């Protein structure tokens, strides 16, 4: 079936793609390269979404493309419950040296982040013989039945699908910018000097709602993703680790979005000097190809009987080849060095270009690690960041996403982004912010 215009393609999509899928634009793309995507009419857009952190090496990195092409001609599917296949074994060999701990020596691969989260919960419940799971407010772990029961970033992900999976308890995440204790005594408590209320609430939860001998695991994002790109105080994870160890509770770190260099280290937990018992991986692991996994120590993984884990496409051979190539590019092109250099540039430009645009009554929290950066505005009307994102797209040909329930933009450029692309992207963003502010002022809304 052929179409004569982009408008007809969009209409066809609206008619035949499930309405439950939301999208931030009506862009119809047909190719992409590096930090740019191109629509069916050849128009070029700067992409600071990276497929929500998936195309970590930019779109269609030549080394990854070549690896995929070669693997597809050799073996494109080797079912994991029937046989070993070499790409998976080679990938494990590449992954082991970059793991944050030498104790992470046993892997299970699946397809999506949500599936990997469910695999981690299955492992925790089976290994501990306990049922309950503690999650953290604002966390996003997926949209499958099990993971939407764990997700608390927005009600849209689970509303209307109940009853949800039982045994899930929610503790507050250390979100200092919105913390009432910080707001009451800002000169005393902040990200550096945390009030420790979130830790106290975890301890209270274990006394009032889910006893330690009934709690299998705590699952937490090292940095909130969909919940707002919130970086916790450095003291949070060591204290959480201490609580888990003391109470024989497994600590699961969901590194689906934060992993594979996004924060300037291979895994975000390395920023906090704490090792989880189980780590979840996905998104950037294979530069756009569907692959996810969990990793733990062999003793813990071996508690599960053969046949209790698996999946038709689990650890697909072509995706494994893409992941191997991704790791090779990390080393050959010194990706982490670029992430940290571009991160410093990005934060500097955001502070010098965006903050001066804001009137005194509008606040801005610029936060994040590496190239996982959030900008939360206060004192603006609801829908402000959506308007900024739309203006950036419609006028400046740039893709920027919003996140969380507050007025927050998130910047997720490819890890290969150049200095010129960072400066150009901030220029486009600042222009979009300025236009929206002027419109609001003209209409008397700020």
Automatic annotation (TrEMBL):
<dbReference type="GO" id="GO:0042802">
    <property type="term" value="F:identical protein binding"/>
</dbReference>
<dbReference type="InterPro" id="IPR015422">
    <property type="entry name" value="PyrdxlP-dep_Trfase_small"/>
</dbReference>
<dbReference type="InterPro" id="IPR015421">
    <property type="entry name" value="PyrdxlP-dep_Trfase_major"/>
</dbReference>
<keyword id="KW-0808">Transferase</keyword>
<dbReference type="InterPro" id="IPR005814">
    <property type="entry name" value="Aminotrans_3"/>
</dbReference>
<keyword id="KW-0663">Pyridoxal phosphate</keyword>
<comment type="similarity">
    <text>Belongs to the class-III pyridoxal-phosphate-dependent aminotransferase family.</text>
</comment>
<dbReference type="GO" id="GO:0008483">
    <property type="term" value="F:transaminase activity"/>
</dbReference>
<keyword id="KW-0032">Aminotransferase</keyword>
<dbReference type="GO" id="GO:0030170">
    <property type="term" value="F:pyridoxal phosphate binding"/>
</dbReference>
<dbReference type="InterPro" id="IPR050103">
    <property type="entry name" value="Class-III_PLP-dep_AT"/>
</dbReference>
<protein>
    <submittedName>
        <fullName>23291_t:CDS:1</fullName>
    </submittedName>
</protein>
<dbReference type="InterPro" id="IPR015424">
    <property type="entry name" value="PyrdxlP-dep_Trfase"/>
</dbReference>
<dbReference type="Pfam" id="PF00202">
    <property type="entry name" value="Aminotran_3"/>
</dbReference>
<dbReference type="InterPro" id="IPR049704">
    <property type="entry name" value="Aminotrans_3_PPA_site"/>
</dbReference>
């Amino acid at each position: 079936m052929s179409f004569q215009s982009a408008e007809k393609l969009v209409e066809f999509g609206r008619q035949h793609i499930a309405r439950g899928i939301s999208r931030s634009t009506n862009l119809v793309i047909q190719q992409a390269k590096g930090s740019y995507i191109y629509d069916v009419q050849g128009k070029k857009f700067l992409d600071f979404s990276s497929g929500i952190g998936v195309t970590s090496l930019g779109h269609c990195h030549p080394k990854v493309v070549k690896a995929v092409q070669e693997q597809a001609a050799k073996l494109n599917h080797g079912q994991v419950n029937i046989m070993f296949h070499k790409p998976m074994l080679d990938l494990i060999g590449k992954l082991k040296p970059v793991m944050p701990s030498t104790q992470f020596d046993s892997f299970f691969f699946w397809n999506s982040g949500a599936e990997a989260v469910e695999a981690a919960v299955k492992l925790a419940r089976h290994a501990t013989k306990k049922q309950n799971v503690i999650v953290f407010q604002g966390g996003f772990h997926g949209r499958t039945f099990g993971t939407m029961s764990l997700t608390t970033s927005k009600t849209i992900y689970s509303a209307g699908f109940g009853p949800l999976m039982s045994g899930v308890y929610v503790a507050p995440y250390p979100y200092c910018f919105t913390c009432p204790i910080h707001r009451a005594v800002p000169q005393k408590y902040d990200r550096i000097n945390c009030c420790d209320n979130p830790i106290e609430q975890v301890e209270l939860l274990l006394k009032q709602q889910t006893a330690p001998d009934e709690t299998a695991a705590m699952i937490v994002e090292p940095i909130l993703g969909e919940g707002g790109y919130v970086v916790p105080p450095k003291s949070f994870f060591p204290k959480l680790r201490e609580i888990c160890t003391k109470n024989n509770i497994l600590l699961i770190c969901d590194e689906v979005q934060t992993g594979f260099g996004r924060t300037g280290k291979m895994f975000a937990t390395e920023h906090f000097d704490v090792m989880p018992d189980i780590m979840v991986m996905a998104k950037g692991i294979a530069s756009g190809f569907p692959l996810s996994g969990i990793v733990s120590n062999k003793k813990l993984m071996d508690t599960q009987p053969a046949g209790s884990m698996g999946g038709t496409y689990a650890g697909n051979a072509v995706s494994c080849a893409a992941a191997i190539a991704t790791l090779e590019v990390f080393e050959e092109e010194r990706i982490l060095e670029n992430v940290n250099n571009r991160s410093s540039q990005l934060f500097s430009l955001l502070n010098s270009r965006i903050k001066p645009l804001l009137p005194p009554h509008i606040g801005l929290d610029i936060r994040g690690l590496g190239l996982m950066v959030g900008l939360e505005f206060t004192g603006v009307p609801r829908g402000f960041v959506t308007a900024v994102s739309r203006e950036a797209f419609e006028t400046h040909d740039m893709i920027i996403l919003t996140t969380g329930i507050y007025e927050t933009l998130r910047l997720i450029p490819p890890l290969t982004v150049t200095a010129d692309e960072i400066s150009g992207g901030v220029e486009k963003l600042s222009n979009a912010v300025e236009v929206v502010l002027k419109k609001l002022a003209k209409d008397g809304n700020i």
